[in-house]
Amino acid sequence: MFVPKLPSIKFSSLKLKPKILSQKSKTGDEFITTIPIEKKVNETLSFQTNSSISMATLQQLYVLLEAVADRVEMHKNVGEQRDNWNTLLLDSINMMTLTATTMAGVAAATGNGGAGISLLGLKLASSIMFLSATGMLALMNKIQPSQLVEEQRNATRLFKQLENQVKTLVAVGSPTQDDVNDAMEKVLALDEAYPLPLLGVMLEKFPENLQPAVWWPRNKAKQLNGEVKNNNGWTKELEMEMREVVKVIKRKDSEDYERLGNKALKINKILAKSGPILTGIAALAMGSSNETWAAIMAGVAGALASTVNTLEHGGQVGMVFEMYRNNAGFFKHLQESIVSTLDESDVEKRENGELFERKVALALGRSLSELRELAKNSRCCRVEGDPIDEFASKLF
Hints:
Layout: E1 22-24, E2 30-32, H1 37-110, H2 116-143, H3 145-172, H4 177-193, H5 236-285, H6 291-314, H7 317-343, H8 353-363, H9 368-384
Antiparallel strand pairs: 1-2
């Protein structure tokens, strides 16, 4: 049987170009893309690298957030504990002082006509209670529990403020490693400004003069990220406005709070010294040989000591001083923020001018128009040589 010989057909191997991708559209039809494979791979690797850096930054920020939240809880708990200290120590010392004063009054009323043993017992018990009150009062005046409570309140508020700033940065910003380092420095600065331990690192409760609290990293300009346009919201008028605001804060608000803080400091020093001295006098008087007059002197000194103690710790004079110190620190921080921003000659590296003006206005409790009016009044008063009678802040 004859079978015809089929002609030989040569199939050439298909050579795909290494830089061409074939994809299918949604309709199922094939089309040839013009995206080189090598470029596609490079872009994918670059995206993965950037994603890994961003994820590492976010992880560091979340670690910081956990640490800040823990510090908020610690300062809150310690503040409540020290508030209890203030209440319990005040009540205990006043109770001891008043009891000893009552014993002294009974001893004075009994006089020489009373039984010798009973009178001696009253005098001895009264002396011991006065001495105990003296020691406890000296310790209480040294640590100033009401001032410690105010420190913890401010630390809690500032740590919450930092926590919110980091959350906002994570939510709407593009955090970088510089932001992580900046947040870390702020946490450490707050730890140094408001220490938790009492021994070794406790803030000086009776300094020579009021020094504003400093809870921010010093001598470091804030690194700002983001796209800027044109003059970044800054004008010559805005710069002049900010400089005038700084002058008003320095001449009025800062000076006023430092003056009030120094007054509170002097009053607290006098009260802190007077209490133990009066209880000590009462204890010594009860050991005097002149029983009647000694008992009368002890009773008077004890009553005065109780009054002084109540005025100092019940009135929380230490807390008032700490409040003035923190307010002075707030105004100092605001001054330094404005000055450091204006010292940056490149406006593109500054924070947006309109946003910065609004932040300053909110910090001072003013509207934008009120802030501009304040700067205008300050400039007019300075030109005319008259002192400005208006404070920059409406909050404090």
